[in-house]
Every structure is written in C-alpha cells, then in structure tokens.
Amino acid sequence: MITNKYTLIVLTLLVALLASSCKEDELQLFSGDKYLYFQKYWEDEAFPGNAKADSTNVTFFFAKPSEQFVTAKLIVVLAGRPLMQDLKFRLQVVEDETTAQPSEYTLDEYYTFRAKPLGLGEKMIQDTISIRLNRSPRLDQLEKGYRLALRIVEEGEVKAGQKERNTAILRVMKNPYRPTWWDQTIEVGLLGKYSALKYRYFLENVPGAELIDEAYMKHNPDKVRKLVLEFKKWLQANPQVDEDGEPITVVV
Questions:
Q1: Full-model pTM
Q2: How far apart are CA 2 and CA 170, in angstroms?
C-alpha cells in the first residue's frame, strides 16, 4: 500500500512537471523575439555576397506645388513565424549616414507590422510602412539631393535582423530617378531617350503608366506597348518640348 502511495505521488509530480514543461514550450513558441529587417540591402551582402546595396529613391518632381510632403514606402520583413497580433516597432535616424535636416522628415513614434497570413506568391512575411519627407527649399540647390538613413530600434521583443538589411537608405532628389525598367531595350523600341519631363508627362496623362515596373514589364509586354501608344497619341494631340528644347517623342 505504501509503495502504491509513493508511486502515485511520483506519477502526480511527473504529470505536473510535464504540464509545466509544455506551458514553457508554448511560451517559447509564441512569445519569442521578433526579428525585423528591411527588404533592401543598405550595404553589400557579406556572404555569399551576391546582393548589392540598394536605396529607396524619392522625388518631389511629381508633387503639386501645394503639397508639402511626399511619402516613401519601405518594405519590412519578419523572420520566423507569422505574428499572432500586430507588432509595434520604432525607427531611429543613423546620424553618420544622414545628410537630411530634421525639418525635412517626420517619423512616427511607432510603426506597425500587421499580423496577417503570408500573401499569395510571397516568399517572406512582410509589410509596408510609409515615411514622410517634407518639402525643403534647399532641395532645388542640391544636385545630388540628400539622404536619410533609418535603423530598426531593438527594444522589448523586437530585434534587428540581418546586419546588411537592418538600415534603410532614402535618397531624396528634386528630379526623378530614371526607373530601372526604362533600359536600352525600352529606349530603342518604345519610349525613346529618357528624360524626367517625358516620364512626368507619361505618368500624368496615361492611366496605368504608374503600374509599370520590372515585373509588370515582364508579364505584360503587350499592355506596356499599348500604354506607350496611348502616350504617342497624347503627344500628337498635345505637342511638348523637352528641357533641352527638343520635341518630346516616342519611337514606337
């Protein structure tokens, strides 16, 4: 009887320990650190070294004179399991990488990484945040513009992920950057020589032109051609002169 009594006590203790262990495992599973990093590399990847530094380009060229700010979109990536609830995190300015003045940007106190399932076709758990860039009179005198470097703040359960991607670089200029999809093939066969003014007229007067990027170009070449033909019709009805004094034309 005594042996059975002690056996029962030992079994009870084992069950209690197992239950406690399971609870601890659950806490570790669902309340672990959250590692965040930006989609773009702010410096060249150390290993294997295939990814190169990339910036987010921002321009006031397309903003109306009355608009006092523009927003830049930054994609943030979460390492690990999808979130069970929204995650708040902060950004800080990297002073030695920044030439922007404090009045030229406005940061939110906190940004939110939304809890949501992996999107269709997505290979990473990611979300997009907006950074406000304020209009600055000095931008007209800065040929190379200025840059704003932002780093993810480590606090609480939020940790900075991959070193080469824990910082985002925003380059702000008066004129737009030439989009990467407007390459030599597009120049020779569709839109002709690139100019900021031509690009602006294209975006402002052809609905759907703003959708064009590398992926759209790859999957919808016929639609891109139709958009350029629409631009050609618009130019024929509304002749424009480029900044160099030459008529704006397309080659399609």
A1: 0.72
A2: 75
